[in-house]
Design brief:
By secondary structure, this protein is of the alpha/beta class. The protein has 27 helices and 20 strands.
């Protein structure tokens, strides 16, 4: 060990007697300080003008534009300059022969030189650590553990780069060639993860070998054992390769023996790396304050209920617009996207099934006129150079699973304990399911899914049709991730004039019937209510009399006409509602609207409490404090004679009714407007309607669905330094600190030259 230490000390002295080491240190210091203080300065200015800040630790250090992320992109340029002379300098000068002929062990020489470069690389981390220290005093409640996680990741990464550079320096006597070779190898290790991903035999090997993004999880606050082991294994591999290379100058070995030795080394490293990367052997340490890199408590409670194998099958239609997201070359990346779950469910199996069938990919058909589905699929295989074990035809895939209701889109099935549910792709920016959707699909497999049943037969709103007033967006739109069908609910319809309400119904919704309910329908509804089950009644001013038989049973009635208010910007029947104050949270919890987004009701009846029939009535939404009158719908302005009539304020527009029946809480919602759940209103920007809609159905299911994946609010949201302090810090770290490094370099180099 003493020999290794002496060699490392000598090598460090040699490095610092060279201007290259000092120049790299100065450049790194200026680059990192410039990036860091620019971020702090930007946040300080934003805070000064009143912009809301949040999650400052992660924004400053990680993410797309963070300090660690940017410096990671430069490290691979610095290391070759530092490692190019480690051994090639000895080879070029001939001193390597003296070293090899000395009694010093070759492994001591290699380890000593590696220790020297690792110690130098530690200076990079020290510089970044100084900036973390400045951030500690500049950002209130800095997440220090998160920052340390990133430093660990960067140091492991740069040490791995150094080991590769050391080996390349052993191969040549030309330092420039060693530097260029190191860059080539690093580029190869970054690129290799994309090679042969469609070849089953080698795709896992090349994916494991890839160094691209290996430190990203640690930069984002999650330390994973397989990434740490990867860096240690790759570093060890190139260190041992360096020892083997130098031993060829001392030991006489046959070519076959050398090949066997190298092959055995690589095989051992790959095997150990592959084994330790398996989900069941992987360990995790979430370094974030709010455990952002771990499943939320709600999701953890769900996965704890899963005991046994679970299978996730992805059905990929080559003709669907999202086909590329689950191609063979994307499978490893796709599997990695579920790592938050395989961390806790290592027995999860993932399978991919490829087929072709008619899709909604209009662009594909327009670009290939005259081709049928089979010909299009064959063309996709040829142009994508796909190597598929099996491609199912429409007839064959239908025998496995019927995907017509899923529009033959790319979709997954999740199977557990004999149950199966769908997990979909969505037509939004992210496409893939997030924690909220994945956890909802898993929960459906371990608890009964809530069943929403819509009454039909009286021209009610439809959950299967588009159009402003229908309900497909919120309930039954498979391409919209927040539609209730994607949040764990089952949605169906039944003609209550002719059929009984299904026994397993969780919520019965009667949405704006246009004709009078039959006596049979009324009897079925009354029986359903008497059983203590949940109901939602939605009316419109022109047709609310159709629900009179039901609302009378509940002790409620609607105003005969719509409520109107005077407004300079909106039509009279556009009501800007207010959430009732002091709502009893033991009755219903409504999410606080942070942005104060309005919940508009367009053409709504008011609700009156007529008699007490045993329900606790809690108004949820009311008209605001401005005067309101009853009038016919469709008016464009409020007549003067109407204004002379008595006005009303704070009229209930949506109420919750609760009571206990047979030891269970019965929940009923009555609203004077059926449009607020329509496609148009749920898609309205700047509206609080969708949150209100979600809160209602969360309440109906005792807050079991949709899955709540909200996390504790981040507390690092305030900059504690002013502009002058930031400016002075920039002067110190961008000008004076690099100048101090330059002066130190000049002193050491001049002193050495004099000697």
């Amino acid at each position: 060990m003493k020999t290794i230490y002496r060699i490392a000390k000598t090598e460090l002295n040699t490095m610092f007697y060279s201007p290259v080491a000092w120049v790299v240190l100065v450049i790194f210091s200026i680059q990192s300080s410039w990036k860091f203080f620019n971020s702090i300065e930007r946040f300080e200015k934003a805070q000064k003008i009143g912009e809301g800040l949040g999650n400052l630790t992660q924004i400053t250090f990680s993410g797309f534009n963070g300090l660690y992320t940017e410096m990671q992109n430069y490290l691979y340029l610095y290391v070759p300059l530092l490692t190019m002379g480690l051994v090639s300098r000895e080879i070029n000068s001939g001193s390597i022969k003296l070293l090899l002929s000395s009694p010093i062990k070759i492994k001591d020489i290699v380890l000593g030189k590696y220790l020297a470069i690792a110690a130098y690389c530690l200076l990079f981390i020290v510089i970044l650590g100084l900036q973390v220290g400045i951030a500690y005093f500049s950002i209130e409640n800095l997440d220090l553990k998160f920052a340390v996680s990133g430093l660990i990741g960067l140091y492991l990464l740069v040490c791995t780069y150094a080991a590769i550079g050391l080996f390349m320096s052993c191969l040549t006597s030309y330092q420039v060639v060693a530097a260029i070779s190191t860059l080539v190898v690093l580029a190869g290790l970054n690129f290799i993860g994309k090679l042969w991903q469609d070849v089953e035999v080698v795709k896992d090997i090349t994916y494991f070998l890839s160094i691209s993004g290996r430190a990203n999880e640690m930069l984002e606050g999650l330390i994973i054992s397989k990434d740490v082991i990867y860096f240690i294994l790759v570093s060890s591999l190139f260190i041992v390769l360096s020892i083997y290379k130098l031993q060829t100058g001392r030991d006489a070995q046959t070519i076959s023996k050398r090949v066997l030795k190298y092959t055995l080394l690589v095989t051992i490293v790959l095997s150990f790396g592959y084994i330790t990367s398996r989900a069941s052997l992987t360990l995790y340490q979430d370094m974030t304050r709010t455990k952002d890199r771990t499943l939320t408590k709600t999701s953890l409670d769900i996965v704890k209920k899963i005991d046994g194998p679970i299978k996730l099958t992805t059905y990929v239609n080559l003709l669907d617009i999202n086909y590329y997201m689950a191609m063979p070359y994307s499978q490893n990346s796709d599997i990695a996207s579920f790592e938050k779950y395989t961390r806790f469910i290592p027995q999860m199996e993932m399978e991919y099934v490829y087929y072709y069938d008619t899709s909604n990919n209009e662009a594909l058909y327009a670009q290939n006129p005259g081709l049928n589905d089979k010909e299009l699929a064959q063309k996709m295989i040829e142009t994508q150079d796909l190597k598929l074990k099996k491609l199912y035809s429409p007839e064959e895939i239908k025998k496995v699973v019927d995907l017509k209701p899923e529009q033959n889109r790319v979709v997954r099935t999740v199977e557990y304990n004999g149950k199966k549910t769908f997990l979909r792709m969505y037509d939004d920016m992210f496409k893939v399911p997030m924690e909220k959707e994945i956890s909802a699909s898993l929960k459906r497999l371990v608890v009964p899914a809530p069943k929403i049943v819509f009454a039909t037969g009286n021209m009610e709103r439809s959950v299967d049709k588009i159009g402003d007033k229908n309900y497909k967006t919120g309930f039954n739109e498979i391409t919209f991730r927040y539609s209730l069908i994607n949040q764990g609910f089952d949605v169906s319809s039944v003609d209550i004039n002719a059929q009984n309400i299904p026994e397993q119904t969780t919520i019965l919704i009667i949405a704006d019937p246009k004709t009078q309910l039959s006596q049979g329908a009324v009897d079925r509804i009354n029986k359903y209510i008497d059983q203590g089950k949940n109901v939602m009644l939605l009316a419109e001013p022109e047709t609310n009399s159709a629900l009179a038989a039901v609302t009378d049973k509940l002790g409620l009635s609607f105003t005969k006409q719509a409520l109107v208010q005077e407004s300079e910007t909106n039509s009279p029947d556009y009501l800007v509602t207010e959430v009732s104050k002091n709502i009893d949270s033991t009755v219903i919890k409504l999410t606080k609207n942070k942005d104060n987004n309005p919940i508009p009701f367009l053409g709504s009846s008011g609700i009156k409490m007529v008699k007490d029939v045993g329900f606790k009535v809690t108004p949820l939404l009311k008209t605001n404090t401005q005067p309101a009158w009853e009038a016919k719908t469709g008016i464009t302005s409020i007549p003067e004679d109407l204004k002379k009539q008595p006005a009303v304020t704070a009229v209930p527009l949506a109420v919750a009714l609760t009571r206990n029946v047979n030891g269970k809480s019965q929940k009923i919602i009555v609203a004077g407007d059926a449009d607020f759940m329509g496609n148009a209103e749920l898609s309205r920007g700047g509206s609080g309607t969708f949150q209100f809609f979600t809160d209602i159905f969360s309440w109906f299911t005792n807050y079991e669905f949709p899955i709540d994946t909200t996390r504790p609010e981040n507390i690092d949201k305030k900059i504690t330094v002013n502009a002058n302090q930031v400016f002075m810090s920039k002067i110190v770290f961008i000008a004076l600190f690099p100048l101090l490094i330059i002066l130190s370099a000049a002193f050491i180099l001049i002193r050495r030259n004099r000697r």
